[in-house]
Amino acid sequence: METDKYNKKQQKRLFDGEEDAEEIWQGMPEFKMNNLTAYKQLIVNFKTKEDMKRFGDLIKQRITETTKYIWFPKKDKEILLDYICTDES
Known about the structure:
The protein is an all-alpha fold. It is 33% helix and 0% strand. It starts with a helix and ends in a 30-residue tail after the last helix.
């Protein structure tokens, strides 16, 4: 296929470059990814809207018709703008 040929050419350009990746990344800061996944996920069913509201009141969290998930205990939303990349050189 023509697209396979194109993809292989693109891959060749990406991976067969003249630059040495080890050299380029020399001196870069260490990056450690923290595990941000939940310990356990649980599906909770409510028979009525009032039951849903009572549950939200019980755990002190607002649950609406459009709520897809919650954290317990409540987890504050992380503001990603607080993380700014800077040049330390």
